[in-house]
Design goal:
The protein is an alpha+beta fold and about 130 residues long. It has 2 domains: about 5-55, Arc Repressor Mutant, subunit A (Orthogonal Bundle); about 70-130, Gyrase A, domain 2 (2-Layer Sandwich). Helices cover about 40% and strands about 20% of the residues. It has helices spanning about 5-15, 20-30, 35-45, 85-95, 120-130; strands at about 45-50, 55, 70, 75-80, 100-105, 110-115. The mean pLDDT is about 90.
């Protein structure tokens, strides 16, 4: 059984209230991990502490609100979204950068995308593809 499956099975089998307890269960199963490695795995698996117990939360299917991309030459793209969505959108855009995309800055409903001036059209086309696949 792979480590991720073992972690999920242990969390389902009994109420585990702290990472030390989970590390002990894993050690009994022959898996020696550091606390920081376990913490990263839990995050990647979507495991969080709910009411004092570690549980895996299944992401709920959500659709993002309508988006609008506006060019602000010479080197900015402005992505407008509904209030509260810009931070997640900025993370999404940073996760799939394209050549010429230098970084993002997200507020509440606006993401600024810094772009090399000569790549503005290419980056905008890439962002439209990434956002269409959401």
């Amino acid at each position: 059984m792979d480590l991720d499956a073992l972690i999920l099975r242990l969390l389902e089998a009994s109420p585990i209230t702290d990472q030390g307890e989970l590390l002990a269960h894993l050690a009994q199963a022959g898996q020696e991990l550091t606390q920081s490695t376990l913490s990263r795995r839990l995050k990647r698996l979507g495991v969080v502490k709910v009411q004092g117990r570690y549980r895996r939360l299944e992401p709920s299917p959500q659709t993002l609100p309508e988006l609008r991309i506006v060019e602000a030459p010479p080197n900015l793209l402005v992505v407008r979204t509904a209030p509260g969505f810009a931070q997640a959108l900025g993370l999404l855009l940073d996760a799939e950068p394209v050549a010429g995309q230098m970084g993002t800055l997200a507020g509440d409903d606006t993401v600024f995308v810094a772009v090399l001036p000569e790549r503005l059209a290419e980056v905008k086309a890439h962002l439209l593809r990434v956002l269409a696949g959401r």
